[in-house]
Amino acid sequence: MSELDFTDLTVSYDGQVAVQPLTLSVPAGGWLCLIGPNGAGKSSALRSTCGLVDHGGSVAVGGVDTSTMSTRGRARAIAFVPQVPVLPADMMVGEYVLLGRSPFISYFGVASANDRRLAADVLSQLDLADFAHRRLETLSGGERQRTVIARAVAQGSPILLLDEPTSALDIGHQQKALELVDRLRCERGLTVVSAMHDLTLAGLYADRLALLHEGRLVAEGTPADVLRAEILSEFYGVNVRVHYEDDGTPIVIPHRSSRR
Amino acid sequence: MTTYRRGWVWLSAALLLLAAAVVLGVMVGPAGTLSSANWNIIWNVRMPRVALAALVGAMLSLAGASYQGVFRNPLVDPYLLGAAGGAGLGATIVIAFGRAATSDWIVDPLPLAAFLGAIAAVTITYLAGAAFGSMRTSTSLVLAGVAVASLTSAIQAFVLQRSSDGVIRTVYNWLLGSLVKASWHDVRLILPYVVVSGAVLLAHRRHLDVFRVGDDEALTLGLNVRRVRIVVVAAATIGTAAVVSVSGLIAFVGIVVPHAVRMVCGGSYRRVLPISIAVGAAFLILADIPGRMLQNPAETPLGVVTAFCGAPFFMVLLRTRRATV
After folding, report:
1. Do B137 and B50 form a contact (C-beta atoms < 8 A)?
2. ipTM for the assembly
3. Chain A residues within 8 A (CB-CB) of chain B?
């Protein structure tokens, strides 16, 4: 288990600032969800964390600055599930999940029996054992998402980043994917950071939310703290109502003043 | 759904094909089959020619597969970054500025110029691509390759336009690729490059499989994308430049062989690379046979044969695979 700390994290593209100095801490085993309108900097924050874009400030995993890590070292610490993963059509599910072991295989080495066993364990844990010899192109949307999560989990990194993990899924598969992530978080002690658009789902699964707006952190706290109608209307420019379940879980409902 | 058989079955089949091609290549020639031909022709004409065809075919196929891997593009070949243009220009300059004057040189400048031309062109492409584009994506590199290829062909056209017909004809023949003058000396000349380059590329076959999920995801899987791409491109380029320097520009092998292998045995580079070596060698040995028989004693250029045989074969493969997938 490791905690993830952002200290004055900044990201800019050709002088265009995407993330203003961001300081946030995710405790080990926690789930932080980044929310915010399109272009708020959620993806930039995630992508800079796993080294895909350069950043200022620092990102630390368990107190170790990622800028001191090698590419392999960073991959051992942080696994990333991109919004639109590349799935080579004729690659087998088993081969694909085994790619998650790459950071542990020496430069000229091949996957060891241990790597294969770990990948097979993940496959069976995610109910994918029967799929091991299926080609990726034959999978449905839900199966694909589970396979990509399986590869990230096979990486064995304590930090799991998910960029819009449910945007391509129907409501049933959204729930299944998030339940799976939550189960893995509890069983494996993963620290999860996700970017999500569905605010209700974000509030249901994450234990803390961070609302970004134009690259700036504007609200941070428990789902009940952040998912408030006045905050959402200010930063999303939307008309919503927030309903609270008996246990206090906020449900965000789009609201329309009248039907034409 | 297609289930691929185990890799070693395919590799064994490819090696058998190679063995058959070698036997056929040694037996067949204008001077008749093994029994009637004398030993001198077998040893000094056919065997070096078969050996050279095998080396060139294996290297171009391996380099093509590796290029396709690091650029994640099944349609690229080892000439992508300007190797062909550079080699062609180097050869053109040597041929145009006095082949006769260099006949008593200890080192034949033609292969040397082609080799250095190919290396120089790819180096320029790499530097230009790095300077003008972000190296995160390979697109800038490919575009720089297009620019360098245009530049070399422009200079080549300029040189040729001022040359005699004889020079133009010689250059043209060289560009089409040929193994007519194959000798053991050529084999010895390129063997070290092919062996070293081949070993480096084979050692990177696992990395090429990681590349299949794209540069970004490969990076998050701990692959140093830039470094591995440079190493693979450098190794593939040196090997390609070496074989091109003795064979000229043999078209199509670098694209069609890895692609055919991929279609039959699946896309994993753990299989594609070794099987492409065997199939590429066999393909070029076989493609060289009609070349020496068809217009005997004048020869049909090998590059013409490879394209002529390879293209329809490729189309058939594309079609049958489309039907079964």
Report:
1. no
2. 0.91
3. 50-52, 70-76, 78-80, 82, 85-88, 90-91, 95-96, 99-100, 102-103, 105, 108-111, 133-135, 138, 155
